[in-house]
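Hey, quick one: can you model this chain's 3D structure?
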Amino acid sequence: MKKFSTITAILAAGLSFASGVSLANPADATIAQAQTVANSSKCTFLPDAPDKHLVVRGDTLWGISAQFLQNPWCWPQVWGMNKEDIRNPHWIYPGQIVYFDRINQRLRLANVSSNGNGNGDGSSGGVPTVKWTPHSRVEGLGADAIPSIPSAVIEPFLSQPLIIEANALDRTPRIVAASESRVNMGQGEKAYVRGDLDGGTSFQVFRPGVALKDPDNGQVIGFEAAFVGTLKLDREAGDEGDVHTFIVVKSKEEMSVGDRLLPLPPTPILNYVPHPPSEDVRGRVVSVYGGVSVAGQNQIVAINRGSESGINTGMVLALERHGETIIDRTDENRRVKLPDELYGNVFIFRVFDNISYGLIMQVKDFVKVGDVARSPQ
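Sure thing. Here's the predicted structure for all 377 residues.
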């Protein structure tokens, strides 16, 4: 079993981030301090964690951390990342090696270093040669870097669904007719639109959706517009009228007269670092996307907390279900409340004022509307 004893500036940064310890000299840090940080932050390592992991394409930081950590969202702390790092995270690339420093309870990042012995593992006489890399590296937009979470799962949701205020879509361009007097439009067909395009040529199409109600008080906190598809301008309205001609580029479902247009947003850069809230957060699941009543792993849910409650992108919340109140027939039919149960995590990836969307990462049960989403403990 390989062990490492050198405590570097990375460890010092981690101590500062996790427990407020400030060290003028990284060498002053002790193994006891590192273990205290790990224990106090509850970022405990799995007892059967491997010594190392070779990063390959298809990996995610969450998945790698799940091999080492009881709570995968703890990886910024065990990497020694401070809050500035979290806002601008370093990249990790295929071909690098993640080592578990068991003495200091830290993960370390290294490159494979060949010394000509043909092993390709940087070893010499059975002793690994490890080259420590900086936290930051600049390589364009990090196209080859591994993502924090399975990005393909959330890409369709980065621009839709859309939370809007009541009547907000009423001021947007709208479909007024289809070619050949059809009622609905599919891919490749024409749609006729009225309204101010404001110079735009590519648009998403939304249909006013259902109201989302806060489970706590029953009040409407937003409207979820259903994404229908995308349109591209074919011919702008001329002197003869004010009707624009569009072509349906992609159709999630058939478009209809009355559907509304919004400009196609730029492609987002996926750059998320999972982290717990800095302050206590407690919300509830408002809806499961798609109109179903329950959700499982890798599905999308909305919670009734947003930026106004301190929610931000990358935040991880624990999922909890209230224990039922039952009748204890062994004790004169007294009413007894069962304990609340933690059963999973949700990763927040899109935030509005009072609503946020999250990806269900790990669950031991189905997620239901009304379940609690709160700060991990």
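One thing worth noting: The first strand starts at residue 52 and ends at 54.
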